[in-house]
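Fold this: proton-translocating NAD(P)(+) transhydrogenase
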Amino acid sequence: MAVKIGVASETANGEKRVALTPETCGKLVKTGAEVVAERGLGRGAHFPDDVYAAAGAKLVDDAAAALSDADLVFCVQPPDNARIALLKQGATLVGGVQPEADSARAEALRGRGIITFPLERLPRTTRAQAMDVLSSQAGMAGYKATLIAAELAPRFFPMLTTAAGTIRPSKVLIIGAGVAGLQAIATAKRLGAQVEGFDVRPETREQIESLGGRFLDLGVSAAGEGGYARQLTDEERAEQQRRLGEHLKSVDVIVCTAAVPGRPAPKIISAEMVGMMRPGSVIVDLAAESGGNCALTVPGDAIETDGGVTVAGPLGLASMGALHASEMYARNVYNFASLLLGEGALTFDWEDELLAKTVWPPRDAATTG
């Protein structure tokens, strides 16, 4: 008997990405799985129904028909409780579920005995790179944030020599050198800006410089475990802010990307620091999703201060590039799902650290059968 995989349209407001593309649908069908998809699933990402059908998907009219009998379900955003209620008892759910962020969602998943694999919990190892949805989607977010900054800035990014004189390049500072920040650095550099990158982890210097950016060294290090930054002490934060505030007086554009998984985004740019920036400066805060790196960020909105500084907090940046973001996300999901697909049934090898450390609720791989 074939494993039945169900995918329905996303319920989150404005979400255009999909967890299943025609490409990954075809690959899943080749494994012997039966794929059921809701009609219109890929509309926002520009994947027509007939292409899914050609890849072997069975198209159904609504989410209930797609999910109610599925053994394995894929999602991009956390499903709401009504969607969880459609899942059959004991089904397996793979995607950006974030169960620990919402107690009602966690209880709904437990109540139906859903075996949940929130991919944001995936260990960040070399083997897991092909399944890392956080990295693939952060790349699109960094790219889009930089384009938004270029659009909002009342300046050219590149240096131009014209009959009307020479235009100096914009000075762009990228705060945070994770995947999103590095993509932002690369994009700003391609647009011709003079680019700097700042991160409290000193090991990012080489990565920033390899993309043509200059590493902004403020003398504060917060190197932590697993490639993430640790929380700064009060003294370290005060010194960082003092030096950064002075530097921002000469910066034209800032793209903020600093985030700590599972926590509110660190506040790096204070209102006082924004007040020291020149009129016409722009801040695009990619971290608005988790509260923002700038004290003045309004998630989902763009404001202009009395001093003429624009502060934008765009949401859903990865969804703005829904086609390519979906292609990457769906490949991540397919690669993870491949660990579960056995001969006609789902199999769970709890000795595999990728499964054991991703599954929610957490379980002891040594004692779980």
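Residues 365-369 have pLDDT under 50 and may be disordered. The CA atoms of residues 124 and 226 lie 7 Å apart.
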